[in-house]
Design a protein that fits this description.
This protein is globular. About 45% of the residues lie in helices and about 15% in strands. Helix 1 crosses helix 16. By secondary structure, it is of the alpha/beta class. A seven-stranded parallel beta sheet has the order 3-2-1-4-5-6-7, sandwiched between helices. A six-stranded parallel beta sheet has the order 10-9-8-11-12-13, with helices on both faces. Bound molecules: uridine-diphosphate-N-acetylglucosamine.
Length: about 375
């Protein structure tokens, strides 16, 4: 059997690494399996892409599509055209797509129109918010993929409600957590002080930071938060209101956020906040190290939510809703929905600071999801 997997952005690398390891283990057991890796290059900076290949010992992609940045139509259309040529050359039995980025949807549609079977890992999650590009990608992918592998049981219900049959789906658990467990078991996590000195965007003020203070870890990259001058400005004002607190705020910058901060002229306002360190985009192990030690996290990332839940770090979701409800306090997790950088942030933040660390693993978030994905794919009746 020939399996062709697609990656495009930072979270995809985290999801595909354990799947490739599962394929290698299956081969060692004697199963004849060919694997082809395609990188669309939606993320292309070293610290958004190549650094992750090195960190996870991922094989060099067999194909680079060099799509890069652009509007959604630009990325979707160009991905389809370039991916079609790969499929013509490779003729795989299965295409595997992960997550909810533009390549997930574009490659799924391309393969299905060429009568090639598609498996979607992380199927069925729904935010209910169709203004999010990811929600459109999820709905389109899940409406036509042949094998839908879900991270939780709620996602199975979502798929059934949308008319998919039970025999087209399986609950396999969360593949992101396979990577988390693997890294915790095999790699030494870096010290916070080392991360700050290596990744700080302004090294001149570093000596004034006290890395023994309780850490508040921040990541923001959703267009709904960072493309809005008003919302981003409001968040920076809120951070400034905390500049006297005995807390160390560590904000790791996504390129989209960094670009907007410069464009909106917010750089000086940020520099004036004494207890805030801005970092460039971090590696996986660096992110994990800060997550593990943070008093709390403020984020609009889905993957970080899941990792915080498993590590027990209290977090606030800076969005109106989440497609990952299994990570919330109401379900035994550690997260609370705080909304899109609104007025309630301060009250929720103060409450979260007093919350204890409480690691929580939803069912089948056990580090063995990739094996179950491959078992489903290799089922003889498919
Ligand atoms: C994409 C995904 C999002 C995912 C996120 C993870 C879609 C619709 N969105 O959003 O679901 O959570 O990745 O990070 O697929 N840029 C660089 N260097 C890079 C990549 C991007 O500078 O290597 C800058 C460019 O200015 C680009 C902007 O970041 O225009 C946004 O990148 P893009 O890939 O379009 O979307 P993300 O916001 O990263």
């Amino acid at each position: 059997m020939k399996i062709l997997s697609v990656v495009a952005t930072r979270p995809n690398f985290i999801k595909i690494a354990p799947f490739i390891r599962a394929i290698e283990a299956e081969r060692r057991r004697g199963t004849v399996l060919e694997h082809v890796l395609v990188h669309t290059d939606q993320h292309y900076d070293n610290n958004m892409s190549a650094a992750f290949f090195a960190e996870f010992d991922l094989p060099e992609p067999d194909y680079h599509l060099n799509i890069g940045s652009g509007s959604h139509a630009f990325q979707d259309g160009n991905t389809m055209l370039a991916f079609e040529s790969v499929l013509v050359a490779e003729k795989p039995d299965w295409v595997v797509v992960v997550g909810d980025v533009n390549a997930t949807m574009a490659c799924c549609i391309t393969a299905k129109k060429m009568q090639i079977r598609v498996c979607h890992i992380e199927a069925g999650i729904r935010s209910g918010d169709r203004t999010m590009p990811e929600e459109i990608n999820r709905i389109l992918t899940d409406s036509i993929a042949d094998l839908l592998l879900t991270p939780d049981e709620l996602s199975l219900e979502n798929l059934k409600r949308e008319g998919r049959n039970s025999n087209e789906m399986a609950f396999v658990g969360n593949i992101m957590i396979d990577t988390l467990d693997f890294i915790v078991q095999h790699k030494k996590l870096p010290e916070i002080s080392g991360i700050l000195s290596q990744k700080s965007l302004d090294k001149s003020g570093l000596s004034s930071f006290d890395s023994s203070l309780p850490i508040v870890f921040i990541t923001l990259h959703r267009p709904s938060n960072v493309d809005s001058q008003e919302k981003l400005g409001k968040f920076i004002d809120w951070l400034a209101s905390k500049s006297e607190s005995q807390l160390l705020f560590i904000w790791t910058m996504h390129p989209r956020t960094m670009r907007n901060i410069a464009q909106f002229g917010f750089e000086n306002r940020l520099k004036q906040i004494q207890n805030l360190v801005l970092l460039e985009a971090l590696s996986y192990t660096e992110t994990l190290a800060i997550n593990q030690q943070a008093r709390c996290i403020l984020t609009d990332s889905g993957g970080l939510q899941e990792e915080a839940c498993v590590l027990g770090t209290p977090f606030l979701v800076l969005r109106e809703q989440t497609e990952r409800p299994a990570t919330l306090v109401s379900e035994g997790g550690t997260g609370i929905i705080a909304g899109n950088i609104g007025n309630e942030l301060d009250t929720l933040f103060e409450a979260t600071l007093t919350q204890k660390r409480r690691p929580h693993r939803p069912p089948l978030w056990d580090g063995k999801t990739a094996e179950r994905c491959l078992t489903q794919l290799l089922k003889p009746n498919l």
